[in-house]
Design a protein that fits this description.
11 helices, UDP-N-acetylmuramoyl-L-alanine:D-glutamate ligase, homodimer, nine-stranded mixed β-sheet, 37% helix, 307 residues
Chain lengths: 307, 307
């Protein structure tokens, strides 16, 4: 199965209580691609970069089965740059700099070679761009997953709601679910959001795990309790990549398989936060992932004798 | 198996975003006893009340197998009174009034008829009182579970640490685990606290579930996502009551059985918050509890094929 991913490929400067990097490759598309390519190929990337984006990074992606035909390279502009600083609890951060650079003129184009993809991952970007990619696809994918954030709810809610009508799965965090629905209770929020379009809703709660809602069903996936969270940047995108990667690999979009996919997404996210950037996602092996999944099984496995 | 419980029997005035009660029966001992008595009897209560504590409440407890020989009734003083107001998110609250009344002179006495109990639940109270109950027991119980709070860490840390050396299981919330250990990471906090005495540590995270630590093992129990949390008062005590009630019923203090006990504690807590006070704990049946446990199984049950 092939997976089209829309997202940024960028540079980040990050400061956490554990260290600091001035310029490191980041972006939602980068994290999604590295995570998903552990499970399925090809990953068909749609993004935009400037003249300064490293060729080695592109080569590393290609070597993993990430197709870059949909990545526009702008020769006279810089890549998107984001800088942020995490608070001591690592759950909150301040954005210090957002230099849009190439992103200001981004008009994603779906290459002919991507047509017919069964899975589409819309990374967190301007809703109009997400819609444009959906509109360009001649055949609707079997599954469309959408990530978004509070920023778009503040400035482009109508566009966002239009995209919501077209997608199957929405990924948001708990604060965003509350903002989007106007409900404080996540159970009520989920019910409201599922009426806006998506049949499945994943609410990410960071170190507190994630909830999957579908009709009247709810599933909870914990986050692995970690000794140290080194850098949370990209954890949500990595989660999304692991999630859609598993679904595409198994080509099964049932609720039961989505539960498994969420555990796999959580496991991938738990690697992502262990080092700055996408470094851990590049070095881990299938054996590492399997060992981590076994930890998740141990973490939640219990016996109840319901007589 | 018999369970000795030490805790308050009191009146509460509670305001939540969903309503308000001026005077309702509460107290840690009350919640523990109502929850635990669903699983095992006798519950051997140690507490103190004033002349104003309702006889009907005592009768209702007795009818459930709660022995009150260890409950001192002070004829010329009022019962302990606590008043609090919850914030809109229900995770935080302000204490408005704390009238110690009878609690100011509480010297718990273990009746002869309680000697030989296999299980001891030390509810959240002054550490010196918890220690006094341990010291009065001629035979050490098979399992001692201790609840405490940040207040005692602020004003009686040495006493608290002395009790910690004597107990098997400690129950605290995440903020308290961080305060007690001086560690931000809960994994590191758990390791530090287990060196202080308890072989098992339960970290309660409210709506985000609970973690059980033992040696190098960790288990996570989610909280059931609820449409409405009506009143969180007593949820932690109810959790503790369900936990020790199941352990005493099965007389099995293995790590595996503690996992089950935590799920049962979470299920009981999910009932507690549905109405003000202990009302729900009195009206639910075994069928209600089993149905709720089945929801927990559904909530976390997933398949991973580790080949």
């Amino acid at each position: 199965m092939s997976v089209i991913t829309l997202g940024t490929m960028a540079f980040d400067a990050i400061e956490t209580p554990f260290g600091k990097v001035d310029k490191i490759v980041g972006g939602s598309g980068t994290y999604v691609a590295y995570a998903a390519s552990h499970f399925v190929t090809p990953i068909q990337q749609i993004s935009i970069v400037g003249y300064d984006f490293p060729q080695e990074e592109m080569d590393a992606m290609k070597a993993r089965g990430v197709e870059l035909d949909g990545v526009e390279i702008v020769p006279d502009k810089k890549s998107f740059f984001w800088s942020g600083k995490y608070h001591i609890d690592m759950n909150t951060r301040d954005t210090l700099i957002t230099d849009l650079n190439v992103l200001a003129d981004f008009n994603p184009v779906v290459p002919d070679s991507y047509q017919g993809a069964e899975y589409l991952m819309l990374g967190n970007l301007m809703p109009k761009l997400q819609m444009s990619v959906i509109d360009q696809l001649k055949q609707r994918p079997k599954l469309i997953v959408m990530d978004t954030m509070n920023f778009w709810m503040d400035i482009a809610m109508d566009d966002l709601k239009a995209v919501l009508k077209k997608v199957d799965v929405l990924l948001v965090n708990d604060g965003e679910a509350r903002q989007l629905s106007g409900e404080l209770s996540l159970v009520k929020a989920a019910r409201t959001i599922m009426k806006m379009g998506p049949k499945f809703l994943i609410i990410k709660k960071g170190e507190h795990g994630a909830l999957l809602f579908h009709e009247d069903h709810v599933f909870f996936a914990p986050a692995l309790p970690l000794e140290e969270v080194f850098d949370p940047t990209g954890a949500g995108d990595t989660f999304a990549g692991g999630f859609i990667g598993h679904l595409a690999k198994t080509n099964d979009i049932s609720f039961d398989n989505m539960k498994t996919a969420i555990i796999i997404g959580s496991a991938m996210a738990s690697f992502c936060v262990e080092k700055f950037g996408s470094e851990r996602l590049k070095e881990i092996t299938k054996a590492d992932i399997d060992a981590r999944l076994a930890e998740f099984v141990q973490l939640v496995n219990f016996d109840i004798d319901l007589v």
